Amino acid sequence: MSVGLSESQNYIWSDDDCLGEGTFGKVFRGIQKRSGDKVAIKIFKHVNHQVSQETKLLQSLQHKHIIRFFATEFELSTNKMVMILELCNGGSLMSYLNEPENVCGLPDEEFLLVFNHLSAGLEFLKRHDVIHRDVKPDNIMRHVLDDGQTVYKLADFGTARELPEGQNFTSLHGTEPYLHPQLYRVCFFQGSNCTREFGANTDLWSIGVTLYQTATGNLPFLVMDRHVMLRIYHEMQENEGIVSAIQQKNSDEVVFQKKLPRNCRLSCGLKQLITPIIAGVFIQEKGKQWSFTQYYEQVVDLVSRKVINVFYVNKMRLMKVYIKSDETFNTFKYYVSAQSEVAEENQVFLYKANLIVNTFEDFSGVDESDCIFLFDRSNAEVESTIDVQLVFENLTNFPNKFMSSSESDDHRLAFVTCRDLCLCKNVMDYQSIVYKYFSNFIKDFNSYCKEETRDQRKMYDTLLEKSSQTKNRAQILKQLQNLNHSNDDSFLDRFEEISDNFLSETDKLFNDLRNIKADLVPNTSHDSYLKTVSKELTDMKQLRKKLYNARINKKLYDFEKIKIVHCVRTILETFTDKMDPNFDCFVNDIKNWHKNEFFAHVRTLSTLKKLLNRYRSDLKRFEDEIQARSDDNLKTISTLGLNKEKLFDIVEKYKTNNLDIKTLVEENLKLVEQMNELVVTLNSNLSTDL
Fold first, then answer.
1. Strand order across the 69-74 sheet
2. 596-631: string of b/e by CB count within 10 Å (b at 16+)?
3. pLDDT value of position 9
4. Of all residues in the chain, what percent carry a pLDDT higher than 70?
5. What stretch or stretches form a coiled coil here (predicted)?
6. How many CB atoms lie within 10 A of CB 585?
7. Could you give phi then psi for residue 275, rounded to 5 degrees?
8. Residue 352: left (phi > 0), alpha (psi -120 to 50), or beta?
9. Distance separating alpha carbons of residues 415 and 418, to the nearest angstrom
């Protein structure tokens, strides 16, 4: 064999290709000699009962979210036992969280994968009466499939054991930051009065710590003294709902929080759902402690919810509403209010050119790529809100500082700068979201306005035609009144006045709608700038690796440093000189458009609709009054000896007019029938008299 290579009967690996190591030994990347399949080779320092137990457990635990066991063999040169395991190409969850872009935790989609896959794996263990006893991001592996999907798998079963329902264990296992308080006290405070019996709920505490770390990028409990942890545990017992506690630097003060930090990348909607779950598994009081069944019910509830994108126009913020399939529109509005602080009565939604205020029929039709737009009817202001706080001083000073720093500081500086640039990238991504969704909002709003204006124009035309027929009937009524020597024209004058005012007001409103500026074109260069930044960030990550490998060559090392500085300058200049100023201009344009054109359009359409509805009611009222007055006059006329030819002429006009308006008043067929009966009666009377 060549130097640096090791092998067992069926597998071979490079001693330089180490994936990780711990107290147990090391894990290497290897391949199957015949097939070439990639595997993970776990080499133990010592073979003991734990190793035998891990092997036995893994052989019996076959699940898609548990690392797969293939075989045990022996290294040919040393005769050390090796375990052949599934190789996960994405490394551990811990290594993924340590990437600069994940300094503030994972976004919703990736977090939910971890949450769902980890919980599914642990639920499988629970059904088989197995506890893991060392749940942490280091022991959760990440595998990216050929189709791009990510799968998380529970690994390292060295401390796992069978534990039937209701039984306890007494041995001490786990990793300090993830230890259950009871285990922590026994491990580090021998004089404590804690019982040395532990239940399966110790895994639940570790899950809570892991979920918090996955959501935020940091551990929930950070202390400089283990005695402070005892204070934290005591406070958490007395005050349920705490999810983090941080001891302040150079102080005994501890800051407790019941919420996830603002800069956490999770959406507000997911934060509100996951925080009670983390707080729940941290409950220590007996009788209130969560069981795994209770925890897993919450998991199933959360991952089964439908995600609806809601863009809050007034705050320029994309919200994610997680809603159950059987929940109503009122519940949806409650969720929206909890995230946006917009009172439910002030919420107005726009979805696919439809304005939604009081009801929404079917959430199942809303696709993940769709977006419902929310605006606050009580607020004419728009403002940009972002939770990422950027510190440009470090980035601005980086080139000079980095070129003069020592090799021991270079890698730390490069990592910190890469992390800060990733925070910049988060701001750019936020700007992209605003550009995208505001453009879509304006497009949908324009479609709504055009459709609404078209509908109101149709209603307007119908009312004009109906008004014309009503005027004809009014003239006939006037002639009937003249025959009957009744000269009450105030009713007819009032109708003329209302109709004239209606025409004047509607003409003005339709003219206003034509003059309102509805379009607003965003700056289209943002996407190209973002591609430049993304490319430079990718290069930066590769350069950090090259810098580490170039340590032995001074010229090459300095050359890699120069390239890193160039990346930083390019990203910083692109953001500060181009993207940010363009975005500020866009925000100002949006503010003016929303305050003026948007609200003007909404108000005008609303006023027009009210005016049309009011005039429709006026027409109905006048028609009813004409009907009643016609009835009275016809009854009176039929009993009088009047000019028969003149009366017959009026009746013929009435017949003709009745035929014209019949199609326009189909909704009032009863009125038409009544008037026809009067015509028949009048004709009969006239025939008799003639």
1. 5-7, 11-21, 25-32, 38-44, 81-86, 69-74
2. ebbebbbebbeebeebbeebeebbbebbeebbebbe
3. 95
4. 87
5. 605-632
6. 12
7. -60, -45
8. left
9. 5
Q: Share the mean pLDDT of the chain.
A: 85
Q: Tell me if 42 is assigned to a ligand binding site.
A: yes
DSSP 495-539: HHHHHHHHHHHHHHHHHHHHHS----PPPTTHHHHHHHHHHHHHH
Residue 493, helix vs strand vs coil: helix
Token output for 468: 């014309």
94-303: which CATH number, 1.10.510.10, 1.10.1660.10, 3.40.720.10, 2.40.128.100? 1.10.510.10
In angstroms, the Cα distances linking 191 to 175, 176, 185, 194, 481 are 21, 18, 9, 9, 109
The two three-digit tokens of residue 539, written as one number:
């290069």
What does the pLDDT average to over 648-665?
54
Distances (CA, A) of 528 to 318, 428, 536: 22, 12, 13
Residue in the structure block whose two tokens are 């070129």 = 403
Query: Where, residue-wise, is CATH 3.10.20.90 in the chain?
Result: 310-376
Tokens standing for residue 411: 């890698």
Identify whether the C-beta of residue 529 lies closer than 8 Å to the C-beta of residue 578.
yes
Q: Indicate the pairing of strand 306-312 with strand 317-323.
A: antiparallel
Residue ranges, comma separated, of all CATH 1.10.510.10 domains in the chain are 94-303
N-terminal to C-terminal alpha carbon distance within the chain = 130
CA 212 to CA 234: how far, in whole Å? 20
Residues of the chain with CATH 3.30.200.20: 5-87
Could you give the CA distance from residue 18 to residue 27 in angstroms, rounded to a whole number? 6
What's the rounded Cα separation, in Å, for the pair 445 and 598?
Answer: 9
Could you tell me the two tokens for 659?
């035929």
Cα–Cα distance, 497 to 493 (Å, whole number): 6
Tens of pLDDT, residues 229-272: 999 999 999 999 999 999 998 888 999 999 999 989 999 999 99
Between CA 305 and CA 299 the distance in angstroms is 10
Higher pLDDT, 485 or 18: 18
What pLDDT does residue 481 have? 67
How is domain 393-459+488-609 classified at the architecture level of CATH? Answer: Up-down Bundle (1.20)
The Cα–Cα gap between 507 and 529 comes to 46
Cite the active site residues.
134
Rounded to whole angstroms, how far apart are CA atoms 83 and 39? 10
**Topology of the domain comprising 5-87:** Phosphorylase Kinase; domain 1 (3.30.200)
For the record, the structure tokens of 391 come out as 């510190």
pLDDT value of residue 683: 44
Class of domain 310-376: alpha beta
Q: What is the DSSP string of 345-380?
A: GGEEEEETTEEESS----GGG--TT--EEEEETT--
Between the CA of residue 299 and those of 108, 120, 526, what are the distances in Å? 14, 9, 38
Phi, psi dihedral angles at 544 (to 5 degrees)? -65, -40
- DSSP class of residue 594 equals I
The dihedral sign for the CA sequence 31, 37, 40, 42? negative
